[in-house]
């Protein structure tokens, strides 16, 4: 039994005995953790400790080797994942030939749109006003990262899985990520964040989930 289980409100995300192995070699786990609405949790670990692999399992890209993941008390399904979980990976996940606006409209078509925001508003919130119609291939790495952040703002997912969201960003971009995480927590969402940087989510003192290389 996990400490505090009987008194806890329903967690947004719950992992029990979660593990992943590759070629019979353990990558992480078994892990038990819960993430509640309004929480940002930092996943910490050395290079190769399994942080990216964990996020890929939680986002449904990889099947768990063992254990279970529940979202709002229910087992993961592809339909639930696509509308409730947003993954920001190492790669920006954008079509290079499309403009930022076209990329965002594509994402809205697949994942839906959060109430009260538009693609133009999202792009201006991440400092990309004036870049709406530029082919994405012409953007810098940091500007592409900002388009990915605009996509997070647009989609209605309650759970954000952010893999090194600060990578390629300047100081102002780092502050932007922290403001977005704050806003996500305040509106009742939650986020799991991997980062090597000491600048990660400095608002309050976020809970930390340590991962250790198992091999
Ligand atoms: N596609 C793959 N094929 C085989 N092994 C892989 C693959 N991806 C990752 N690994 C291995 O799985 C382990 C965990 O990798 P993972 O990328 O999850 O670590 P990480 O904690 O995110 O690392 P980093 O801090 O360097 O980003 C490593 O030992 C890595 O070599």
Automatic annotation (TrEMBL):
Question: Which InterPro entries does the entry mention?
Answer: AAA+_ATPase (IPR003593), ABC_transporter-like_ATP-bd (IPR003439), ABC_transporter-like_CS (IPR017871), ABC_transptr_haem_export_CcmA (IPR005895), P-loop_NTPase (IPR027417)
Domain ABC transporter residue range list: 13-215
Superkingdom per UniProt: Bacteria
SUPFAM superfamilies found in the cross-reference section: P-loop containing nucleoside triphosphate hydrolases (SSF52540)
Q: Which UniProt keywords apply?
A: ATP-binding, Cytochrome c-type biogenesis, Membrane, Nucleotide-binding, Translocase, Transport
Q: Which residues form a coiled coil?
A: none
GO molecular function list = ATP binding; ATP hydrolysis activity; transmembrane transporter activity
Among the record's GO biological process terms, what is one? cytochrome complex assembly
What the entry lists under PANTHER family is as follows: ABC TRANSPORTER I FAMILY MEMBER 1
Q: What is this protein called?
A: Heme exporter protein A
- Recorded source organism is Dokdonella immobilis
